[in-house]
Amino acid sequence: MKQTEGMTLIVKTVTRISVWMILLYGLYIILHGHISPGGGFAGGVIIALAFLNVMLAYGRDFIKRWVNIGFLHDIESSSAALFLAIGILGMAVGGGFLANFISHGKLFHLLSAGTIPILNIVIAAKVSMGLFVVVWTLSIFHLDKGGKK
Amino acid sequence: MPVETWLIFILGFMILGSIIALELKDILSSVISIGIVGLGVSVAFLFLQALDLAIVQFLFEIFALIILVRAFIGKEYHIKEPSKSHVIQTVVTIVVLLSILALSINVFRLLPQFGEPIFSTARHYVENGAKETGAANIVTAIILDYRAYDTLGEVTVLFTAILGVLAILKTRSKTTSPAGGDHETN
């Protein structure tokens, strides 16, 4: 069996099973941010950690083969613009910058609280992709420094 | 036991952890003892019933620990032997800290009681938050509805920081890489 990149087979197998649960937990934290403790920042970090888990276990090139890092950076940048767009939409419809212009719904329901869940999702996309792209770039930087010696 | 006792215990634990991290010779053990501080902050938030902050603090601690361990593992570091003439520095530090404490005693008397906010806006948020925003989680209601403008600032700070990191590291890795544009990600 050829061992090319990443960690041992045990780590890879455990990661293959557990990473989906981590992603699911992150999505739960994001989508229930307005009902229970959590929210965009926490859920975004959990999703970034899931990606980081895959990167540590399977190696750097595995991620590069499956996902385009430039696309992740585009998601990160455009979610910042989306946050601003929601704010300006609130100014146009709701009468104030970042106003909560969608109907609030019933308390403790998943689809409630107007724009708050949308903003949570936008922040989660921003935080998760941003942190992962930074870690990715840092790992490339270390590789090059090691190769120069 | 009251919350304050637990908080003092956790604070002492954190101070102990940072002193150990400073004194240890091995960099990996040092990084792990620094983790005590972040974990202590997280547990302190749990005792203060700030669950959202506890989750975020705990996750960022994991994140920082992974990055630090990944950066320092398997690398040789030159250990600098500390010089012996630290007595004057220590004395100066202790005197300065004690004088700051002595000068700020009057301020400590003005602090409000534990758990009683000064501002009346806090009471408005707690009493009307669920009704006005429709969000059951009051922390999310504040940071994404009442104070959404602050959150926009936070997002901007994060965005700029990530842009800066990418700009510096990408240029550096391009110039130091022997293979040229091989490592370009974009």
Please report which band the strand proportion of chain A falls in: under 5%, 5-15%, 15-25%, 25-35%, 35-45% or over 45%: under 5%
**Protein structure class of chain A:** mainly alpha
- For the termini of chain A, the CA-CA separation is 31 Å
- Biggest sheet of chain B, open or closed, and with what strands and sense? none
Oligomer: heterodimer
- Count of individual beta strands of chain A: 0
> Topology as H/E string of chain A?
HHHHH
Helix content of chain B: over 70%
Number of helices of chain B: 8
Average pLDDT of chain A: 82
Sequence stretches where pLDDT stays below 50 over 5 or more residues of chain A: none
Concise synopsis of the structure shown:
The complex is a heterodimer of chains A (149) and B (186). Chain A is mostly helical.
Task: Give the SSE layout.
The complex is a heterodimer of chains A (149) and B (186).
Chain A: H1 9-31, H2 40-58, H3 60-66, H4 69-93, H5 116-148
Helix pairs in contact in A: 1-2, 2-3, 2-5, 4-5
Chain B: H1 3-23, H2 27-47, H3 51-72, H4 87-103, H5 105-110, H6 120-133, H7 138-146, H8 148-176
Helix pairs in contact in B: 1-2, 2-3, 6-7, 7-8
Explain the overall architecture.
The complex is a heterodimer of chains A (149) and B (186). By secondary structure, chain A is mainly alpha-helical. Chain A has one domain (9-148). Helix content of chain A is 72%, strand content 0%. Chain A is built from 5 helices and no strands. In chain A, α1 runs antiparallel to α2. The two termini of chain A are 31 Å apart. With 186 residues, chain B is mostly helical. Chain B has 3 domains: 1-76, no CATH class; 113-146, no CATH class; 148-178. Chain B is built from 8 helices and no strands. Residues 179-186 of chain B have low confidence and may be disordered.
